[in-house]
Every structure is written in structure tokens, then in C-alpha cells.
Amino acid sequence: MTAIELVNPATEEVLGSVEHADVAAVDDAVARAKSAQRRWARLAPAERGAALRAFAAVVDAHVDELAALEVANSGHPIGSAEWEAGNVRDVLQFYAASPERLSGKQIPVAAGIDVTFHEPMGVVGVITPWNFPMVIATWGIAPALAAGNAVLVKPAEWTPLTTIRLGELAVEAGLDADLLQILPGRGSVVGERFVTHPDVRKVVFTGSTEVGKKVMGGAAAQVKRVTLELGGKSANIVFADCDLARAAATAPAGVFDNAGQDCCARSRILVQRSVYDQFMELLEPAVKSVVVGDPAARATEMGPLVSRAHRQKVASYVPADAPVAFRGTAPSGPGFWFPPTVLTPQRTDRSVADEIFGPVVTVLPFDDEADAVALANDTEYGLSGSIWTNDLSRAFRVSRAVESGNLSVNSHSSVRYSTPFGGFKQSGLGRELGPDTPFHFTETKNIFIAIQELKEEA
Ligand code: NAD
Questions:
Q1: Does residue 418 lie within any of the structural domains?
Q2: For atom 9 of ligand 1, which residue has the closest CA?
Q3: pLDDT (tens digit, 9 = 90+) per residue, 156-205?
Q4: Ligand 1 pocket, 257 CB below 6 A?
Q5: Assuming Cys at both sites, which of 37, 266, 384, 388 could form a disulfide with 406, CB separation 3.0 to 4.6 Å?
């Protein structure tokens, strides 16, 4: 076991340290999870539902504590952190209904009865990134438990605190301590062991496309099931016929939420050329008025970046000669601050192609609908996006043409727990959330029962 120091990104103060699990600890956890899973799967569906509702209730009683932990560990503004803790509760509550709804089918066949069952997979490994720690962990935990599995979670190295606390709250709610286990550690140790351990039957990975490819490659050796939620470079397409004032006023929130450390960030704004100048005039005050500062303060809209190393990476996209149109403000002094920044680069610039994962947005003009769709799709990613227009036909035409998993028209919302979420192309594989996800944590079993024909009675 080794330990890693955790740092408050808004103050650079050391918060403490967390012990890292090694391979032997993962193997021990898998063995205990296997037995816990058998006990869990034997419970009546209604009992599993009740246990998940109890877990949700305990989370509800600790929303303030979880939010404060996320403010300290990740630098999320308090309002966002409270929403995240509430989302954990709501997702648990939503999937608490699933154990009683995992119905199979009865299929008409000759000479018997054919029925399907949705069997749990066994032990599921969930690997999470640092940008929305407790929320993303729960999107894996809740449906996997609901389907009768045990779950091991490896949180990101920098931000494990809320996930560790969730594990404790599950035990407080009455769940078997071996059923949901949190294993902080290195990706190359704990994460990789989830991939190579034969008794981990599915890996849910959320993180960079680069590491996601490694996970998928490793999983192939055992034909292990994977769900991948990877990077994004989403477009916010602004047509001339839209409510331009609203499009400009909301564009900063669409990309600078969580300081741009959001896989769904609309980090490429595409604006119809005829309204480009007017849009930029409206966007400037909106960007300059984003309140960047102490994440614990209620008025704060944007906090710091997660770490010094990450700030360096983001800053590399804004060199001294970068085409900066305008910037917002950020505190000076300790903390990994970076101001909201608007770039107007060439279409071929690397700031247009790469996922920067910080508060940097590019704005490009387009000529017509076909050009907008071509630009929006000119990326290896396909996670989310927004379309601003008051023309209903255009809204549908463009929504259907953009190669992306989650689109919103005249808004920037994309993740609701009751609707499916995930990416096209290199943004991922499979879907999370929505009503069907528990089925993705099961194997379908088909059983045929022969029925003897009754001999013809005379
Ligand atoms: P990352 O890929 O560096 O790390 C993600 C997780 O994988 C961490 O827990 C890390 O320790 C672990 N890991 C690292 N190497 C591993 C290995 N060889 N085997 C197994 N696990 C390993 O990503 P990050 O920097 O933590 O997060 C940012 C990225 O996550 C961005 O690209 C972002 O777009 C993406 N993301 C995607 C979604 C989505 O739903 N599509 C959501 C949030 C974040």
C-alpha cells in the first residue's frame, strides 16, 4: 500500500492522504465481492429495491457533507456540488425500482415453452475520472447493483474522497460491506487489475479516449464486457434564425460549467456568418460576467482547475500569440485558476480539434446548414451538442445529421438520469443512465421447456 497526498485546488492546501490499494488488495476484494454478490442476488427483488432506497435515504441525509467534500477535493462551486450529491440520491432512487422490473420474455415456440431471464454478471469494476467523481461512480454503481451484481469502484487518484464516503454510507444504510467496495489506487495498478482479473465480468470505464482504448484492448483478452464513456469536443451550433440573445447568454454555461472539465462541454461554438459579429458582441459581456472564485461562496459560478499539471495542459492551448477574442477574470494567488477564454482560430487549429478540458472555447463562422453539419461532424468525438434555431424542421434535420449521442435544441442540457447517455464514434461504447441500463449489467439466458403432446383422445 502506498499513499497519495490530496490538494485543495482552490487553495493548494494539503487535505490529507489516501492509501492506495495494490494488486493483492484488489484480488482479496474481488474474492469477497464474489460471495457478497451471491447473497445479494438470492434476495427477493423487492428486498434489493428496498436496500437501494435505504442507501438513497442515507445519501439524502448527507448531501451537505458530500457537497462540502467535493468543494474541498475538486474545487466545484458549492451550488454544483449540492446538485451532484442530490443526483447521487436521485439515481439510486431511480434504479431502486429496477430489480422488480427486470422482466424476461415468453417467446412462442413449437413443442414447449421458451422463457428468457436476465442473470446478473457477477462482479463489476467501475473506473472513474476526476471531473464528476461521485456522480459518475453512481451512474455505474446504481444500475449494476439493481441488476444483482457486486461492484468495485476505483476513483481517480486526485479526487477519491466523495466516492470513499459513498462506500461508507452504503454500509450505514445496511448494504453488505463486501457488496460495494471502494478501492483508491493507480490506474495502472487497480484499474488494470479490474481489466485482467477473470472474476471481474464487466468494466465500466469513464475517462480519456486514450486510456479507454487500452481498457477495451485489455478486455478483449477475456471477451470482458465494457462500457466506455470517453472524451468529447461538442459543437454549439447557432443559426441566424434563433433567439441570439439567449444563445449568447447561455453559451458560457454550456462550456465553462465545472471550469470546462466536462465531457459534454460545448467547446466549439459554430455561428452562422450573417450574425457572427452580433453574436460576438453579445457573448463578450456574458463571458466577462462569469463569477470565478472561491468555490465555497454561493455566488461563484466557476472554480479552479483540478490540479497544477492540468492547468499547464490547458494553458498550452493559449500561448502568447493565441487568437484571443476576449477573456473573463480569475483570482490571482494560490489555486489552479484559469480565466474563461474565447479563441477565434482557423478551422485547422489544434484548439479546434483537441479536447482541452478547460475553460477555453473556440468560435468559428459557418455559411449554411450543410457547412454547419460538416463542421460539427469534423471530429473523432461524438458525445453531445446544442442546436439553436427557431425553425422546427431545421432543428430536427440538424439533430438527426449530427453524429452525437446527446443533443439539445435551444438549451445545453444533456444528462438526465431517466434518459440514455453516451457517445458516438470515439466518445464511447454503450450507454449509461435511462431505463434500460440495468439490462446492460445482465446476461440474457434462454430456457426451453419441452411439453409432451397429449395423445389424441378417441
Ligand atoms: P483518465 O483516462 O486519465 O483516467 C480515468 C480513470 O482511468 C482514472 O481513474 C485513472 O486512474 C484510470 N486509469 C488510468 N490508466 C489506466 C489503465 N491503464 N487501466 C485502467 N484504468 C486506468 O481520464 P481523466 O483525466 O481522469 O478524466 C478526463 C477524461 O474523462 C476526459 O477525456 C473526459 O472527456 C472524460 N470523461 C468522459 C465522460 C463521459 O461520460 N463520456 C465523463 C467524464 C469524463
A1: no
A2: 156
A3: 999 999 999 999 999 999 999 999 999 999 999 999 999 999 999 999 99
A4: no
A5: 384
Distance CA 353, CA 403 (A): 16
pLDDT digits (tens, 9 = 90+) for 137-146: 999 999 999 9
Range of the domain at 405: 235-409
pLDDT at 456: 77
Residues acting as catalytic residues: 229
Residue owning grid cell 441500463: 437
Distances (CA, A) of 322 to 228, 342, 374: 33, 10, 25
**Whether the CB of 295 sits within 6 Å of ligand 1:** no
pLDDT-derived band at 454, boundaries 50, 70, 90: confident
**458 has a pLDDT exceeding 70:** no
Q: Is 211 in the pocket of ligand 1 (CB under 6 A)?
A: yes
Could you tell me if 214 and 298 lie in one domain? no
Cell of 339: 480565466
What is the tens place of the pLDDT at every residue in 16-45? 999 999 999 999 999 999 999 999 999 999
Q: Give the span between the Cα atoms of 149 and 423, in whole angstroms.
A: 24
Count how many domains the chain has: 2
The answer to whether residue 414 is domain-embedded is: no
Ligand 1 centre and the CA of 28: distance in Å?
24
Q: Residue 134 corresponds to which cell in the numbers above?
A: 461521485
What residues have CB less than 8 Å from 441, skipping those under 6 apart? Answer: 120, 121, 124, 143, 144, 146, 147, 149, 202
In a domain, 351, yes or no: yes
**pTM (2 decimals)?**
0.97
Atom 8 of ligand 1, nearest CA residue: 156
Indicate whether residue 94 lines ligand 1 (CB < 6 A). Answer: no
Nearest to 135 by CA among 205, 181, 81, 77: 81
Do 221 and 109 belong together in one domain? yes
Q: Which residue shows C-alpha cell 453524429?
A: 403
